[in-house]
Amino acid sequence: MNGPSPLAVQDIMTNDPVHAPMERAQEWAAGAAYVIDRFVPLGEAAVPITDLGLVRADAVYDVVSVSRGQFFRLEDHQARFARSCDRMKLSNRFTQAEEAELLNELVARTGLKDAYAWWAITRGTNLPHPSDRLHAERFKNRFYAFVIPYVFIKDDADRQAGIRLHVSKDYVRIPANAVDPRAKNFCSLDLNMSLMEAGRAGAEWSVLTDGNGVLTEAPGSNIFVVRENKITTPETGCLEGITRLTALDLCAEIGLNVEVGTVTVDDLMAADEAFLTSSAGGIIPISAVNQQPICRGSGPVSTRIHNLYWEKRWAGWHGTPVDYEAVN
Amino acid sequence: MNGPSPLAVQDIMTNDPVHAPMERAQEWAAGAAYVIDRFVPLGEAAVPITDLGLVRADAVYDVVSVSRGQFFRLEDHQARFARSCDRMKLSNRFTQAEEAELLNELVARTGLKDAYAWWAITRGTNLPHPSDRLHAERFKNRFYAFVIPYVFIKDDADRQAGIRLHVSKDYVRIPANAVDPRAKNFCSLDLNMSLMEAGRAGAEWSVLTDGNGVLTEAPGSNIFVVRENKITTPETGCLEGITRLTALDLCAEIGLNVEVGTVTVDDLMAADEAFLTSSAGGIIPISAVNQQPICRGSGPVSTRIHNLYWEKRWAGWHGTPVDYEAVN
Fold it and tell me: Which of B35, B178, B196 is the closest to A190 by Cβ?
């Protein structure tokens, strides 16, 4: 039933640093960060304890992955980050070109070929006069970034076998009229708590509803449901994931019937296949929902999209090569 | 109509450090922190950039105020913090006595007589193996704390005149079935954004509903509505504020008719008086809601509770004197 297996990805990836001409201390290979206008090894990177990004989760961020020395859809991530900033009235003192240069330099400093580049803008330190806190433009927003080695949220074995998903009963996703999930932000206590609920239920990942039986998103990932030759992913209450966008592109390219719309728990329970999409793992097939099997291993659609995703990425699709010489 | 004015509080408070026997560098008077097992001046206090308390708002916290050298309701804050930890499956490596001692030492190091003491437990650094992230007990939670000078969210002039409140139209409060507000946590982007909406509307503070016309809470504060000799504060969707508890106690002590229940926007618009309660300001009367006056200045009930609140605090009610000699 299942056709070919998903490509083994982890075995082919390597985080051995490339050897760029300049000498790099071992400490940089573990990660690099940009904090308060300085490049530092990750181990030294810290955020002032009073930063509103911490104490009030008042911030937006984005994460782009690097595979085999290439950023994937960097411009799309940057465009989304700019929209996140606009939605939360945070201002970026860097242009998109400067931002890209900074992220490149961080990757170059680590030498990592497979990495995450994370960056954020926080509201900054709280203002001494409370009346100033009513005005976005009076804050001095802060830009932070770091690069760390790539880690799959689910490894090859899980992607071959498919993962067991738990639909959270204890938590609903923070609704868009409270905190708009299209602005990628830190408020994810609901998502993190649902992971632990999934653990208690013997599952491997969770997905959250809106409280009315409609699926929203999973921790760090979007969900796709394949049912009767139609593929659907939630339209609202979720991040506009770049891997979600990529899966939509790939479905269209293959000629599959795909749409963005309402997806219910019932749709998921009755699905032929389902998968998660995430920069931290690509395409992740689902084998069971709430302990009910929905597919043996990775189904044919999931496998096809998974393999195409990695084949095209490695062929340079939407890739921006990291310039490993660009270390100032 | 209004009777006596609220006590002038700010003029009577002082943040001149007391002069304890040991020498203290100027830098400690600006604030002190406890970060990764070390006491440091606030200016040096920072949280590792990968801490889940930052990147996922995966943390709980509490804040207790110190006035005239006394913590106010320290044990109640500590008990609430313990409940917050339980709700979010975070573990505190300190006993309540050790925690109190640590907060005392932080205040003592600053020498401040009027201060906030903030403390938090974060999930800690993310675990390398995603499957471990399903189990709360596998994380190494981190304890952070800092003490800073007390700042009123609204000063005496505002408390005399009452503040103009804006009922947010753009944001609802994160619902309890997503992130339980009784566990005091960092997810407050909704609250912070509503403050900026209030600023645009010419108001001085905001309050959020549940999206169905029922009031929940205001940034950093609870709301009380006085209508036809009955005082009501929201029961659900809000923090169980310690100043809210104190206002309930004071209303009962005076013999006022007070209850915890459902409070609608309509109740607020038709109120005789309304006020906010917060550790960062005590009792804050409201003079207008959505540009419609509801009370000239501070109304008689608000004034009475405000004055009683400070008089009793300064008389030592629920006070724990700071031991300024306790600096290890």
Answer: B178
- Gap from A210 CA to chain B (nearest CA, Å): 9
Q: What is the dihedral of CA B311, B314, B316, B321, to 10 degrees?
A: 160
Burial of A315 (0-12, 13-18, 19+ CB in 10 A): exposed
- Please state, in angstroms and as integers, the Cα–Cα distance from residue A91 to each residue in A84, A98, A190, B188, B199, following that order: 10, 14, 27, 19, 18
Quick check: B89 and A58 CB within 8 A?
no
**Count of Cβ atoms closer than 10 Å to residue B240 Cβ:** 17
For A186, nearest residue in chain B (alpha carbons): B56
Of residues B55, B153, B177, nearest to A211 (C-beta): B177
Convert the pLDDT of each residue in A123-164 to its tens digit. 999 998 889 999 999 999 999 999 999 987 777 887 788 999
Residue B178 CB contacts under 8 Å (≥ 6 apart), including other chains: A171, A172, A173, A174, A175, A178, A190
Contact assignment for A134 to B50 by CB distance below 8 Å: no
Burial code of A150-180, b = ≥16 C-beta within 10 A, e = fewer? bbbbbbbebbbbbbbbbbbeebbbbbbebbb
Segment A92-100 shows an average pLDDT of 98
Q: Report the greatest alpha carbon distance in chain B.
A: 65
Cβ contact (<8 Å) for A56 and B171? no
List chain B residues with CB under 8 Å of A203.
134
Best residue in B126, B139, B189 to probe A by mutation, most A CBs within 10 Å? B189
* Whether the predicted model's global pTM rises above the 0.90 cut: yes
Q: A166, A168, A143, A119: which is closest to A287 by C-alpha?
A: A166
For residues B167 and B207, what is the distance between their CA atoms, to the nearest angstrom? 5
* ipTM exceeding cut-off 0.90 for this assembly: yes
What confidence tens digit (pLDDT) does each residue in B35-63 have? 989 999 999 999 999 999 999 999 999 99
- Partners of A165 on chain B (C-beta within 8 Å) are none
Q: Is the dihedral of CA B262, B266, B268, B271 positive or negative?
A: negative
Asked if the Cβ–Cβ distance from B47 to A54 is below 8 Å, we say yes
Q: What is the DSSP letter of B238?
A: S
In the chain, the amino acid numbered A61 is Y
In angstroms, the Cα distances linking B145 to A108, A322, B41, B104, B229 are 35, 40, 11, 11, 41
